[in-house]
Write a structure and sequence with these properties.
Blueprint lengths: L5 E2 L6 E2 L15 E2 L41 E3 L8 E3 L10 H14 L4 E5 L3 H13 L2 E7 L4 H9 L3 E5 L3 H11 L4 E2 L7 H16 L16 H8 L1 H4 L7 H20 L3
Parallel strand pairs: 6-7, 6-9, 7-8
Antiparallel strand pairs: 1-2, 1-3, 4-5
Length: 268
């Protein structure tokens, strides 16, 4: 397989991973070119964190910023007439699944020389970036809406990050972060593609949890959609492609989400 690179999925433009970026030259969302995935033999079984799946990443991360994220409990409980399995992602170090994306994204950025980042967030994303920035010696500034929960603001402060509250709707925080990205790297959980490389591990983990078989169905809560996209991009490894399988449902949803993201990116 060819060397991994950033790719703009619509026009096919590619960019080297050696130079950190969060968007294309035309300020469109990027992905990372498809990789071969992993087999069960590639799993580092003595690593009790999501880094057990490091073979599935597009680059070798020599010194991960890790706090033991991943390997969260999978608990079966009754729900009406069903007994679904619940993936308890709040067991991650800062309290959310976003730690999966953050650990990979910031580890990569530190490896290519980034020592300060910006992030816009109204909650868990900012807390996660702040926490892992502290763990990895990366200076962090969070742009958050003025209405952000005081508890989340306190969590960001507790990790030692700077926080700037921005008046107006949620989109104004993103716009302000993009303006400030001229001087500090914009490590956005919605824009920087290495974040998705971390959320893929949630699907690898489910695959391993179920004895290297796909569950019949997957229900994913979706905000900006990083968990959905992460599960979708490894469908060829962990999930079958039969009609109405998790892979097919994820494929349809992911295409809709990527189209929506691209449309939003053209707002200027």
């Amino acid at each position: 397989m060819t060397k991994a690179s950033y790719i703009e999925p619509v026009d096919g433009a590619t960019y080297s991973l050696d130079i950190p970026r969060w968007c294309s030259d035309d300020r469109k969302p990027l992905l990372i070119t498809a990789q071969k995935g992993i087999s069960r033999d590639d799993i580092v079984t003595n690593d009790r964190s999501l880094w057990r799946y490091r073979a599935g990443l597009p680059v070798e991360i020599k010194a991960p910023i890790s706090m033991g994220e991943g390997c969260t409990p999978l608990v079966q409980r009754p729900w009406g007439d069903h007994r679904p399995f619940f993936k308890l992602e709040w067991f991650n170090p800062t309290g959310s699944f976003k730690d999966r994306g953050t650990t990979v994204m910031l580890s990569y950025l530190r490896q290519v020389g980034i020592d300060a980042v910006l992030e816009d967030s109204s909650g868990n994303g900012g807390s996660s970036i702040a926490g892992y920035g502290a763990a990895g010696g990366i200076r962090v500034k969070i742009l958050a809406p003025a209405y952000t929960s005081p508890a989340k603001i306190a969590q960001v402060h507790a990790y030692g990050a700077e926080i700037q509250l921005v008046e107006g709707p949620r989109e104004e925080s993103e716009a302000e972060a993009i303006r400030q990205s001229k001087t500090t790297f914009y490590a956005s959980h919605n824009w920087q593609p290495f974040f998705l490389e971390g959320t893929k591990t949630q699907a690898y983990e489910l695959w391993e949890d179920f004895g290297f078989k796909a569950p019949d169905n997957i229900i994913i809560s979706v905000g900006a959609g990083s968990s959905l996209l992460g599960c979708y991009w490894i469908q060829g490894v962990a999930f079958s492609s039969a009609d109405r399988s998790p892979a097919e449902v994820l494929r349809r949803s992911a295409i809709q989400l990527l189209t929506h993201r691209r449309q939003l990116s053209g707002r200027g």
